[in-house]
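Recap from last week: sequence in, structure out.
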Amino acid sequence: MYKRVLIKVSGEVFGGKNGGLDYEAISKVAKQISEAYELSTQIGIVVGGGNIIRGIDSEKFGVLRTTADYMGMLATVINALALQNSLEKLGVPTRVQSAIEMKELAEPYIRRKAIRHLEKGRTVIFAAGTGNPYFTTDTAASLRAMEIGADVIMKATKVDGVYSSDPMKDPKARKYDSITYLDVLKKGLSIMDSTAISLCMDNNLPIMVFNLKGKGNIRKIIEGKKVGTLVRGNNGARTKKKNK
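Predicted structure tokens:
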């Protein structure tokens, strides 16, 4: 169903109960991605760093916001390298590109080079967010997805879609099969931050919200099977603007 996708994986997925790196969890994520890779779909990935450090939490303890955000960006590089290692063990050729230059560890982010890697069948992991403070990795995912021409953002979460309220706290929470960007913003649903949602809305880029722990969910979505919740525009998942 999709030729090129951008998968957003939160840092919490990579961490154990006490944070840090849970290599077993990382291996499970890599396994799902490798199954999707077998479909010849071009895959880009944006990883978070919340399992190691969250910039917004550090700020509460007196760390300057810009410094805290840069610390968080470095955490995403650690996660990216860990995921790259797991993917390559499964035979998936992978490149890490960082928005903050660090030649010894990763390539600098260059849009044309990233697209070339994808065209050659390499999975690309985008690290260090946007390279700027005050922007989340959700926003980085929206930005990178548009830059590489992805057909969809696949937002991996711990729940099986978008609900009217927190399903862990509200037994009456209703799951949406699909929902518009505007409704997400109006209802204040915690899918991605408002900047990321607005970017997707302005460029009519659909977001698929799904449970990463569901067996084979990444592959199922790419195959067009009904999984999770689709966040879209009023007139469908993605439409081309007509020339005036």
